[in-house]
Design brief:
Layout (H helix, E strand, L loop, with lengths): L1 E4 L6 H10 L4 E4 L2 H5 L3 E4 L5 H10 L3 H9 L4 E4 L1 H4 L4 E2 L13 E5 L14 E6 L17 E6 L1 E5 L5 E7 L1 E9 L2 E4 L7 H12 L2
Length: 205
């Protein structure tokens, strides 16, 4: 059973359908008992960092998420769900993230050092580089393309947890792995066969 945490995030339905396509049983819930009884837990998300942390607090999901991680259940953050795992974001000054992993989110610059302009947010396909082989990327080739929608990029403090990066004016930490915690800035549920393989790999952990 995959528990998909419901905190009024924007891409819950597409994540649910992707796991069901792969044959997994799912439940969309914010009930701690249902979350703790699952085999795997997913924190999806589309939207603003500050609003998301406020909703997690209102629904009393912050201690639930931290307990899931401490129980060593396989846990996956997707898009905003990756960002929330870290300490802070320039999108929301003074708002603390979950702090499960160390690092911060910065706004993608609109121009590079040569004055070239970049469209913000990054919307569309970009290729991945693997600084180390993470378990989510078993059977996936270097330079495979996945789908992004984001204006803020992660810089993880511990470079050893970064399993995928992409370039979009800056180097984006596109995926991380630490113990039972996995996360990706891109949307595997919208990334065609590569994305389905990533979700399948998560189901097999």
């Amino acid at each position: 059973m995959v528990a998909i945490i419901d905190y009024d995030a924007g891409n819950i339905k597409s994540v649910e359908k992707a796991f069901e396509y792969l044959g997994a049983s799912t439940i969309v819930t914010r009930d701690p008992k249902e979350i703790f009884s699952a085999d795997r837990v997913v924190l999806p998300g589309v939207g603003a960092f500050g609003d998301a942390m406020r909703r997690l607090s209102e629904y009393d999901l912050i201690p639930t998420i931290k307990e899931v991680v401490s129980k060593e259940l396989p846990f996956m953050g997707i898009c905003l769900g990756q960002q929330l795992l870290f300490d802070s974001s320039e999108e929301a000054d003074g708002v603390s993230g979950l702090g499960i992993l160390r690092g911060k989110l910065c706004r993608i610059p609109e121009t590079d050092s040569q004055g070239n302009s970049y469209k913000i947010p990054q919307i569309g396909w970009n290729s991945l580089k693997f600084p180390r082989q993470g378990r989510l990327f078993k059977g996936i080739n270097q330079d495979s393309y996945v789908y992004f929608v984001h204006s803020y990029y992660l810089h993880a403090e511990d470079r050893n947890i970064v399993t995928a990066t992409c370039d979009y004016n800056v180097q984006v930490d596109a995926s991380v792995e630490s113990g039972n915690v996995f996360a990706c800035q891109f949307h595997p549920e919208k990334s065609a066969d590569v994305g389905m393989q990533i979700l399948k790999n998560f189901l097999e952990i």
